[in-house]
Amino acid sequence: MKYLDEFSNPDLARRLLDQIHQAATRRWAIMEVCGGQTHSIIRHGIDQLLPDEVEMIHGPGCPVCVTPLEIIDKALAIAAQPGVIFCSFGDMLRVPGSEQDLFRIKSAGGDVRVVYSPLDALKLARENPDREVVFFGIGFETTAPANAMTVYQAKRLGITNFSLLVSHVLVPPAIAAIMESPTCRVQAFLAAGHVCSVMGTSEYPALAERYQVPIVVTGFEPLDILEGIRRTVLQLESGRHELENAYARAVTAEGNQPAIRMLRDVFEVTDRAWRGIGLIPRSGWRLAPEYADFDAERRFSVTDIHTAESSLCRSGEVLQGLIKPHECEAFGRECTPRNPLGATMVSSEGACAAYYLYRRLEIVGAAHG
Question: Is 64-170+255-299 a domain of CATH 2.30.29.30?
Fold first, then answer.
C-alpha cells in the first residue's frame, strides 16, 4: 500500500499543480506515450486540473491498440485451425478483426485460452504434445523479455509444438515518426517508465536533441505524472530539450541488462505496421533466424493476409493524438466496449476505453446541454 498512498497524496498533488500553474505562461502540448498513463490521467482528472495552457495529447502507447488489423486476422486464422491451442492475454480476446474476434472463434469451437504468462503456454505445449500451441506475443519492450525467454526455453528443451505469433513494437521509432508527421503538434513527451525500466534511457537523449523536444521519463501514479508534467513545463518554458528521469525508483540509464541480452539473442529489429498509423521503419521485433522455427506466421502460412480498417473508426487519429476519443462520431454510439469498432475502445489501456469509462456521462451531458 505504500506507493498507493505515497504517490496519491492530495496535498502533494495540489502543491505540484500549483507549481505547474505558476510555471506555464504559454500554450504547450505534451504527449504521454503510455496507455497506462492515459488511463491514470483521465481516471484522476489530471487533464482537467492542469492550467489551460497545458494540453495532454494521448499517444500510441497502448500495445493492444497499435497491433495491426492484419496481425489480428492472422491470429484468428490460426486459432480457428483444428488441433491448435491458441493462448493469449485476456485483453486481446475482444479486439476486433475484419469480421470477428477471438471470443467468436472460441464460441465456434476454437480452443482459445487466456493465460497469465507465455510460460503457461509453453507448459501447455509440454502437456499436449499432439497439439500445436501458439502464444500471441504483443506489446512494447515491457512484455518482450518474457516472450523471448519462452522461445529460448522452448528451443533449449526441444519443444517443437510451440510457436509465437509476434507483434512487438518499439517506442523510440514511434516518437520519431510522430515528430516527423506533417500534422504533428507535440512539443514534449512523457516517456513510459515500464519500458525504460527494461531498456534504459540511452536512446532518448538523441531524440530530444534531434527533434528539440523535452522527454521526461515518469511512472503511472498521480504524483508521478504530475511531477513529469512539472518538469516538462519547466523545460519548455526555459527553452531546454533534454531527457530527464523522474522515475528513478524504477528506471536506470542502463536498464535491465540480462533482459536486453535475451532480447538481442531471440529477436531482431524489423519494420512494423502500427494500427491506425501505418508502417514505421525499424519499429518492431521479429524472431531472429536461429529461432525462425518458432514463428507462428511461417508455421501456419498466414504471411499474406491483408485487410482494411472500418470506415467509421477514427482510432488512428486518436492514436496519433490528432483528436480526442469523444470527437469521433462513432464514440459511444456504434462503438462501445461491448461492440468495439477499434482496439482503442476495448483495450484496458486504450484512450477510447478510458473516456468511455470515466468521461462518458460528462460527454453525454455536455452534448445534450
Answer: no
